[in-house]
Each structure stands twice: as C-alpha cells, then as structure tokens.
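tool=predict chain=A
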Amino acid sequence: MSDVILVTGGAGYVGSHACLALAEAGFTPVVFDNLSNGHRDFVQWGPFVEGDIRDRAALDAAFAAHRPAAVMHFAALIEVGESVRQPGAFYETNVAGALNLIGAARAAGVERMVFSSTCATYGDPVQLPMDETHPQVPLNPYGRSKLMVEQALADLDRYSGFRSLVLRYFNAAGADPKGRIGERHEPETHAIPLALFAALGRRDGFRIFGDDYDTRDGTALRDYVHVLDLADAHVRALRHVLAGGESLQLNLGTGHGVTVRELVEAIRRVTGKPFPVETVARRPGDAAALLADSRRAAEVLGWRPTRDLEAILDSAWRWHAAG
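tool=predict ok
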C-alpha cells in the first residue's frame, strides 16, 4: 500500500502539524491547499499542490499524479463569526467542497478518509463533559456545515463502503516546540494568540466576549488541546482506517476546562507581562461551555493528550514572540 497521504488544507494550522506527524510516522504527506488561509512556508514535509477543493479537475489531477492511499481533509472555512456573516461561503467550501473531494477520491479508487470536524457540531452542552452521543444542534453555520459533512460520510459508509474517521476536536492551541510551524491566521480571531499579541504589545489589549455565562466566573469555558496531540490523533486515526477499521466519530480534548478569565491569568503568568483586558458583549454563535469526554479515542486509538495548558501556552508564546 502507498505511504502517500493527500492532506487538504495541509498548509494551515492543524493540517501542517499533522503533516509533520505523518512524516515522523513514515508517511509522505502531499499538501493540497489554495493558500487562502494556509502558508507556503508551512509545507515542509512533502510535495505541494496548489489547488481548491471546489475544483474537481485540480483534485483529479492530484489523485492521478500522487496516487494516495487515503485523504486527510482539513481544508475549510473555520471562523465562527464570519460564518454568521457569510453562511453561503461556508456551505460552498465546507460542504460542497468536501463532497467534491470525496467524489474525486472515490473516482480514483481511494476509499479512506480522516475528517477534521469540530465540537461546534454539538452546540450548547446538555451535559458536561460531552461525549460522542451528545445531541448535535450547532449554534452557527460553521458547525452546521461540518455536521452536514459528518452526515454525508455516515451515509457513504453505510451505503457505499467509504470508510472515514471523524475527529471532533475542541480548541486547538500551541505550536511546534522547535519553532518550525505554529498558529498564524489572517486575521487572527483565536483567544490565545490574541492575548499573546496583547502581551507582546502588538494589540491594544484583549477583549473578553461576555461575562454572564453560566460558568464558574461568568466567562466562556473551553477545552484547549495541544495541536501536536491533535496531530498524533490524526496519524492514529489514519492507521485505523488503513487497517480496515470501522467508521467512527471521536472527540479530541483534554477534559479540563479553562474559562477565558482563567486563560488570561495563565497567559500573564507564562509571559510575565501584564496587558489590559476589556469585557464586551457576547458574540453570536458562541456556546457557554465546551468540554470533551475523549475516553472513546483512548479506547479505540490509544490516544491521550500529553501536554497541559502550560505547555500549550509556553510553545505558543515562543512561536509568537519569535515572529
């Protein structure tokens, strides 16, 4: 079997770290990315094909040229607030693009996929932590677009034998400790880099969106998992589907929640730098709390996160400070 894996969105944040993990595991990642959110300098561990998942001809050419054994699919629009403002773009890229990719894969005889999904498919928690049986009632078009792809993959498995492992991860964070790649979004919307930018003096402070949630200090609670722990899970998921394992949906998180206010204090400790913080109104589409129950990933893949919040913040701080 080929050791080549087509990685859509492999020039992006999580995708590039997955490529690093794939290469270290003996695979050859072929990055397929339109560079709308990814970065050419993040492609360091295999060939690069510039293309858009909505372009069937470009996909067909990539499959023909590289003959991958499976696909890791990261390419997507991911910003929750933008999905509320431009839902059509999210359905076009995240849903139509994914179906286009699956069609190209199947035409090339590739019947295995690892899909980058999200805890945003759950919506507001009915119970915490959230396991894979939690109701999926997304609060925003981003979450709904990912859920639609999950549902399509379930039907393709049931009726066509197309195997997939869906990974619903919680808040990806951190960077490669060696400083080769890290988190870089343009514009940046994620809490940890925004707070680090404030600590570095690159922003005029940090904003907390809402302090009236039903959490221990009123600010939203999130489950931060190191991006290299996520990358490790993707390699394990790939091996599962390549070995003929059943299609599954698995959570990836630490099970340890951190409120935004607690995150701010942790960043102040790690950086040793004070920075101003302002509390403003809630953002539309944000859940009060998201906390993972990842026991199934431990049982099926043998996966457990190995890096705590301090390791996450330390690696992210060194990455952003160097930039």
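The mean pLDDT is 96. The chain has ten helices and 13 strands.
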